[in-house]
Amino acid sequence: MTSGLPRRFLDLLTRPRVAGAAWWSVVSRLPVYLMSLALVLTVREQGGSYAQAGLVAALYTLGMALGSPLIARHLDRRGRAAVLTATAVAYPAALAVLVWFTHPGGWAQPAAAAVAGAVLPPANACMRSLWARLPLREEERETAYLWEALLTEVLVIGAPLMLAALMLVGSAGLALTTIAVVGGLGTLGLAHTRLPAGTSGTDAAEAGPADAGPADAAGGAPPEPRHPLGPLREPALLALTGIMALSAVPIGLLTLAIPAFVDRHGPPGGAGLVYACWGVGSALGALWLGRSQSQVAPQVRFPRLLLAYALGTGLTLLAGSQVGLAVALAVGSAPIALVSASEMTLVSGIADGRSLAEAFTWASLATVLGDALGQQAGGLLMDPLGPRAVFAVATGTALAAAGLAFACRGLLTRRAVPMVECAA
Predict the structure, then answer these.
(1) CA-CA distance, 268 to 322, in Å (whole number)?
(2) Is 231-415 in CATH node 3.40.50.620?
(3) pLDDT at 415 (0 to 100)
(4) Domain boundaries along the sequence of the chain
(5) How far apart are CA 103 and CA 96, in angstroms?
(6) What is the pTM of this model?
């Protein structure tokens, strides 16, 4: 029943004082899904080698991996307005320095890339933690997380197209700068938009005293000193991030195996269309199956969806042509967005209400690192084994992730409770 889900999205995303945060967050996240590609294109445009471009992109990613948990921890402690405003200014400034004041071959350009990655605005973590804090019914919160998962698929497909469109009328450097500035403006909008009354853990600036931190969800008491490990001290969240990292490895493996398979079974120009089928299948799966999945407890549906994801990955082993692989990916990717939505629901139930942004950041970072590990492994396995063997490794890894999720289901069940109830 797909007709009801778009209506639920529309009702949620047009609600007063929810719509502002939701739509500003979309704008603020545009750089997240294209910046690595934009950096490579910019360095190459400036005359740099692929090795230099790869170094810049890698250091950007490394800076993001090191900086994002710290930024998210400050977001939890200091509130939305202060942290988002600071990063909204620092991020486009660092990228502008990289594009207009540095050149390939020196130390300044890689350094600027690392700084830009470290100060990437935490829009993903902020919005996902806000969905957990907003006064919503649990069905509406499930819809919100499904929207987040669907939005990821849309941005993965659409953001690079936006970059390509900007490059038609200007340089790669100008396109990169434009996207960074637009993302910064979106972050400022998210920082200062007003939230509905009854939002749990409201920012200090909105709550009253200037020195107040995010309130305790139960009684408004100031937060206790934080553990050095933050939310990762919770075994359930540690297990969940491990599962998500393992389940992302097949994505990285397929990222390398798909173009290699396409090269061996027809013209290489078909790789883009095959990739598109992968993303479109995930988005359609969310729209088609999302409503029924929300009726199942997240700790129950999460391992089931991972098993479906593993079986869908296995469909690639049956492909014998480019068309066959496109169909296999479109059908097999149907559970991917739903896995992501269930993971967000579990994080919101497991994490301490005072460290939600950091918890969501660790979950996202686990996925990024798993994807990167998969790409590295795929590159090492491709030449000696070929794409079909890499498909088999991806399927086995996905099955292992599903098995781990079933093994940890009891741990997740004990902690997967709604963090916030609707104020009504």
Answers:
(1) 10
(2) no
(3) 56
(4) 21-136+156-194, 231-415
(5) 12
(6) 0.84
Q: How far is CA 124 from CA 68, 81, 139, 270, in A?
A: 11, 15, 21, 32
Query: pLDDT (tens digit, 9 = 90+) per residue, 17-48?
Result: 999 999 999 999 999 988 988 998 999 999 99
pLDDT of 410 higher than 50: yes
Rg (alpha carbons) of the chain, rounded to whole number: 21
Query: Exposure of 320 by Cβ count < 10 A (0-12 exposed, 13-18 middle, 19+ buried)?
Result: exposed
Those residues whose C-beta lies under 8 Å from the C-beta of residue 165, and which sit 6 or more positions away, are: none
Does 231-415 match 21-136+156-194 at the fold level? yes
Q: DSSP letters along 77-92, please?
A: HH-HHHHHHHHHHHHH
- Please give the full DSSP string across 219-249, using - where no structure is assigned: T-PPPPPPPTTGGGGSHHHHHHHHHHHHHHH
Indicate the CATH number for domain 21-136+156-194.
Answer: 1.20.1250
Q: Which two tokens stand for residue 100?
A: 């207009």
